[in-house]
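The instructor's notes for this session suggest beginning with a concrete chain rather than abstract definitions. Hand out the sequence below and ask the class to guess, before any prediction is shown, which regions might be ordered.
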Amino acid sequence: MRILGGNFKGKNLLGSQDLSIRPLTNRIKKSIFDSLQYFYQDKSVLDLFSGSGSFGLEAYSRGAKNVTFVEKSDNSLEILRRNLSLLSLAEGSSTVVHSDVIKFCAGTENSYDLILMDPPFNFPEIQELVDLIFGRKILNVQGILVVHHEITNPISADTGTYQIKQQKKTGRSLVSYITVRK
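After discussion, reveal the predicted structure:
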Protein backbone atom coordinates (compact mmCIF):
# COMPACT_ATOMS: atom_id res chain seq x y z
CA MET A 1 0.00 0.00 0.00
CA ARG A 2 1.41 3.38 -0.98
CA ILE A 3 0.61 7.03 -1.64
CA LEU A 4 -0.24 7.43 -5.33
CA GLY A 5 0.04 11.18 -5.88
CA GLY A 6 1.03 14.53 -4.45
CA ASN A 7 3.82 15.47 -2.06
CA PHE A 8 4.22 11.96 -0.63
CA LYS A 9 3.82 10.09 -3.94
CA GLY A 10 5.51 6.69 -3.83
CA LYS A 11 5.78 6.55 -0.02
CA ASN A 12 4.91 3.11 1.31
CA LEU A 13 2.39 2.85 4.13
CA LEU A 14 2.17 0.21 6.80
CA GLY A 15 -0.84 -2.10 6.67
CA SER A 16 -2.47 -4.52 9.03
CA GLN A 17 -1.48 -8.17 9.20
CA ASP A 18 -5.12 -8.94 10.07
CA LEU A 19 -6.47 -10.79 7.03
CA SER A 20 -10.07 -9.96 8.00
CA ILE A 21 -9.41 -6.30 7.14
CA ARG A 22 -10.12 -5.34 3.53
CA PRO A 23 -7.79 -2.48 2.59
CA LEU A 24 -8.75 0.00 -0.11
CA THR A 25 -6.94 -1.09 -3.25
CA ASN A 26 -4.62 1.29 -5.05
CA ARG A 27 -6.71 0.88 -8.22
CA ILE A 28 -9.92 2.03 -6.53
CA LYS A 29 -8.12 4.80 -4.62
CA LYS A 30 -6.60 6.10 -7.86
CA SER A 31 -9.98 6.02 -9.59
CA ILE A 32 -11.58 7.98 -6.74
CA PHE A 33 -8.92 10.70 -6.69
CA ASP A 34 -8.91 10.92 -10.49
CA SER A 35 -12.69 11.48 -10.32
CA LEU A 36 -12.32 14.17 -7.66
CA GLN A 37 -9.61 15.88 -9.77
CA TYR A 38 -8.44 18.77 -7.57
CA PHE A 39 -11.53 19.12 -5.37
CA TYR A 40 -9.63 18.12 -2.21
CA GLN A 41 -7.02 20.90 -2.36
CA ASP A 42 -7.13 23.24 0.65
CA LYS A 43 -10.17 21.35 1.99
CA SER A 44 -10.96 19.85 5.35
CA VAL A 45 -11.28 16.07 5.09
CA LEU A 46 -12.94 13.49 7.33
CA ASP A 47 -11.73 9.89 6.91
CA LEU A 48 -14.25 7.54 8.52
CA PHE A 49 -13.24 3.90 9.16
CA SER A 50 -9.73 5.18 8.53
CA GLY A 51 -7.84 1.96 9.27
CA SER A 52 -4.21 2.58 8.28
CA GLY A 53 -5.11 6.08 7.06
CA SER A 54 -4.46 5.37 3.39
CA PHE A 55 -7.58 7.21 2.15
CA GLY A 56 -7.08 10.37 4.22
CA LEU A 57 -3.30 10.41 3.74
CA GLU A 58 -3.80 10.30 -0.03
CA ALA A 59 -6.04 13.38 0.25
CA TYR A 60 -3.47 15.15 2.43
CA SER A 61 -0.61 14.27 0.09
CA ARG A 62 -2.61 15.76 -2.79
CA GLY A 63 -3.22 19.06 -1.04
CA ALA A 64 -5.96 18.74 1.60
CA LYS A 65 -5.62 21.35 4.35
CA ASN A 66 -6.28 18.94 7.21
CA VAL A 67 -7.61 15.45 7.84
CA THR A 68 -9.56 14.02 10.76
CA PHE A 69 -9.17 10.24 11.03
CA VAL A 70 -11.86 8.26 12.89
CA GLU A 71 -11.16 4.65 13.79
CA LYS A 72 -12.25 2.40 16.66
CA SER A 73 -9.79 -0.51 16.31
CA ASP A 74 -6.79 -0.23 18.63
CA ASN A 75 -4.66 -2.22 16.18
CA SER A 76 -5.60 0.03 13.24
CA LEU A 77 -5.00 3.15 15.33
CA GLU A 78 -1.48 1.99 16.11
CA ILE A 79 -0.77 1.48 12.38
CA LEU A 80 -2.38 4.84 11.54
CA ARG A 81 -0.22 6.65 14.10
CA ARG A 82 2.89 4.95 12.74
CA ASN A 83 1.96 6.01 9.19
CA LEU A 84 1.41 9.60 10.35
CA SER A 85 4.83 9.51 12.00
CA LEU A 86 6.47 8.11 8.85
CA LEU A 87 5.15 11.03 6.79
CA SER A 88 5.90 13.78 9.35
CA LEU A 89 2.76 15.80 8.61
CA ALA A 90 2.68 19.53 9.30
CA GLU A 91 1.66 20.59 12.81
CA GLY A 92 -2.13 20.73 13.21
CA SER A 93 -2.84 19.08 9.86
CA SER A 94 -4.23 15.85 11.30
CA THR A 95 -6.44 14.73 14.14
CA VAL A 96 -6.90 11.13 15.21
CA VAL A 97 -10.14 10.21 16.94
CA HIS A 98 -10.54 6.84 18.68
CA SER A 99 -14.28 6.29 18.29
CA ASP A 100 -17.07 4.37 16.68
CA VAL A 101 -18.00 6.35 13.54
CA ILE A 102 -21.71 6.59 14.35
CA LYS A 103 -20.97 7.90 17.85
CA PHE A 104 -18.46 10.36 16.39
CA CYS A 105 -20.93 11.64 13.78
CA ALA A 106 -23.73 11.88 16.34
CA GLY A 107 -21.57 14.06 18.58
CA THR A 108 -19.37 16.18 16.32
CA GLU A 109 -20.04 19.86 15.81
CA ASN A 110 -17.54 20.09 12.95
CA SER A 111 -18.28 20.04 9.24
CA TYR A 112 -16.04 18.96 6.39
CA ASP A 113 -15.57 19.63 2.68
CA LEU A 114 -14.77 16.02 1.79
CA ILE A 115 -15.81 12.91 3.69
CA LEU A 116 -14.15 9.63 2.72
CA MET A 117 -15.86 6.49 3.95
CA ASP A 118 -14.68 2.91 3.42
CA PRO A 119 -16.69 0.81 5.89
CA PRO A 120 -16.40 -2.96 6.19
CA PHE A 121 -18.46 -4.50 3.39
CA ASN A 122 -20.81 -6.13 5.89
CA PHE A 123 -21.39 -2.85 7.80
CA PRO A 124 -25.18 -2.97 8.37
CA GLU A 125 -25.66 0.68 9.39
CA ILE A 126 -24.41 2.28 6.16
CA GLN A 127 -27.76 3.95 5.41
CA GLU A 128 -28.10 5.14 9.02
CA LEU A 129 -24.61 6.67 8.85
CA VAL A 130 -25.23 8.46 5.53
CA ASP A 131 -28.54 9.83 6.89
CA LEU A 132 -26.74 10.97 10.06
CA ILE A 133 -24.02 12.77 8.08
CA PHE A 134 -26.58 14.74 6.09
CA GLY A 135 -29.06 15.18 8.94
CA ARG A 136 -26.38 16.71 11.20
CA LYS A 137 -24.86 18.72 8.33
CA ILE A 138 -21.41 17.20 8.81
CA LEU A 139 -20.79 17.66 5.08
CA ASN A 140 -20.48 21.29 3.97
CA VAL A 141 -23.03 22.45 1.38
CA GLN A 142 -20.51 22.38 -1.48
CA GLY A 143 -18.87 19.17 -0.22
CA ILE A 144 -18.71 15.58 -1.41
CA LEU A 145 -19.18 12.33 0.49
CA VAL A 146 -17.35 9.42 -1.16
CA VAL A 147 -18.45 5.96 -0.01
CA HIS A 148 -16.79 2.71 -1.07
CA HIS A 149 -19.31 -0.04 -0.35
CA GLU A 150 -20.50 -3.44 -1.48
CA ILE A 151 -23.16 -3.59 -4.20
CA THR A 152 -25.34 -5.72 -1.91
CA ASN A 153 -25.21 -2.96 0.74
CA PRO A 154 -26.70 -0.04 -1.24
CA ILE A 155 -27.36 3.56 -0.28
CA SER A 156 -30.83 4.96 -0.92
CA ALA A 157 -30.95 7.57 -3.67
CA ASP A 158 -34.47 8.66 -2.70
CA THR A 159 -34.02 11.42 -0.14
CA GLY A 160 -34.69 15.10 0.28
CA THR A 161 -31.35 15.91 1.91
CA TYR A 162 -28.79 14.43 -0.46
CA GLN A 163 -28.33 13.14 -3.98
CA ILE A 164 -26.09 10.48 -5.43
CA LYS A 165 -24.28 12.34 -8.21
CA GLN A 166 -22.40 9.35 -9.54
CA GLN A 167 -21.73 5.69 -8.86
CA LYS A 168 -18.91 3.58 -10.26
CA LYS A 169 -18.99 -0.21 -10.14
CA THR A 170 -15.73 -2.09 -9.63
CA GLY A 171 -16.08 -5.84 -9.16
CA ARG A 172 -18.43 -6.40 -6.23
CA SER A 173 -18.11 -2.84 -4.95
CA LEU A 174 -19.56 0.57 -5.70
CA VAL A 175 -18.06 3.99 -5.18
CA SER A 176 -20.86 6.48 -4.55
CA TYR A 177 -20.30 10.25 -4.82
CA ILE A 178 -22.96 12.01 -2.76
CA THR A 179 -23.71 15.71 -2.38
CA VAL A 180 -26.15 17.91 -0.50
CA ARG A 181 -29.44 18.26 -2.39
CA LYS A 182 -29.96 21.88 -3.32
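Then share the key points. The first strand starts at residue 44 and ends at 48. The radius of gyration is 15 Å.
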